[in-house]
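Hi all, long-time lurker, first post. I run a small reading group and we've been trying to get comfortable going from sequence to structure in the token notation. Rather than ask abstract questions, I figured I'd post a concrete chain and ask someone more experienced to write out its structure so we can walk through it together at our next meeting. Sequence below, copied exactly:
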Amino acid sequence: MRHRESGRKLNRNGAQRKILFAQLLRSLVKYDRIEITLPRAKELRGEADRLVTLGKRGDLESRRAAFQILQDKDLVYRLFSVVAERSKARQGGYTRVLKTGFRYGDCAPMSIIEFVDREAAQ
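-- Answer (accepted) --
Happy to help. Here is the structure in token form:
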């Protein structure tokens, strides 16, 4: 039974999940929108919202915590200057998940996860 167990395993052990989510967060901060499978998007949503909350706080401790996840100074700068500034007025719910259909090869449900206050397509 799975009483009081949160989160999906996604067929990975803990270290692999941590690396997967770190890479997905890097891509999300860099491109503002990525297309992934629906279970991954639903799990990533909470992690991304926590990361934007760190960006909104803006202090040194938050920058260090964000750098521990993103491992890239340019992405941390983008998170704190661009993404967090766009989300200043919002109290939560910084990301949205849009279902896009099914993948051709294995019929996996696909979705797009994006920041709600993202800029228009360039």
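A couple of things your group might point at:
Strands lie at 33-37, 95-102, 109-115.
The CA atoms of residues 56 and 85 lie 7 Å apart.
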